[in-house]
Amino acid sequence: MIATPDRTPLPRSFFDRPVLDVAPDLLGRLLVRTTPDGPITLRLTEVEAYDGPNDPGSHAYRGRTARNSVMFGPPGHVYVYFTYGMWHCMNLVCGPDGKASAVLLRAGEVIEGAELARKRRLSARDDKELAKGPARLATALDVDRALDGTDACAPGETPLRILTGAPVPSDQVRNGPRTGVAGDGGNGDVHPWRYWVADDPTVSPYRAHVPRRRRS
């Protein structure tokens, strides 16, 4: 039986913790994206943790850049990056100000505003696929680099907000290697930092890293 979701916004203190504590605790939480056409609410079902300088899979492993600077800022902010020249992905910054760590939001179930998400995800075969994968999630919620740095814990109106929702019991949480991460960062024995809700149909399939071929 799924508990009734709590609509109370998560405080900044929720994110001001080690990323490996925050990541699994985000499962079952609600992400609300307020758009000009109306709100879209997503129940988070899959995430990945990235631990900055301690993690070769993290964008912040080699230090601060213009691209990843939000990761070094206060917890509870949104880090959005552009990848493969076509997709955006959304993260939530964790830990103390100045220490770069973040949780990638990999998948979720659209529970409100599905009609708005469908307009952006025309290739989805059904609603379970609307946010099944990080790029699909960002596309369904109309998230791009314009939202990089957004404070999801700010008082008043904000384009992105995380609500308490219904946390997933620990016996329903699974973890394993992160999807598509190269080298040591993709080693599931060292970094089993992908977390998902067991048997949830919105969770994306695991794919190991495949090196990109250089053009001749």
UniProtKB/TrEMBL annotation:
EC number: 3.2.2.-
Main enzyme class: hydrolase
SUPFAM superfamilies noted in UniProt: FMT C-terminal domain-like (SSF50486)
Alphabetically ordered keywords of this record: DNA damage, DNA repair, Hydrolase
One BP annotation, GO: base-excision repair
Disordered: annotated segments: 166-187
Keyword RNA-binding: no
GO molecular function, one term: DNA binding
Keyword Zinc carried by entry: no
InterPro entries: Formyl_transferase-like_C_sf (IPR011034), MPG (IPR003180), MPG_sf (IPR036995)
Record-linked PANTHER family: DNA-3-METHYLADENINE GLYCOSYLASE
Homology family: Belongs to the DNA glycosylase MPG family.
The protein, known as: Putative 3-methyladenine DNA glycosylase
Lineage, top ranks: Bacteria, Bacillati, Actinomycetota, Actinomycetes, Kitasatosporales
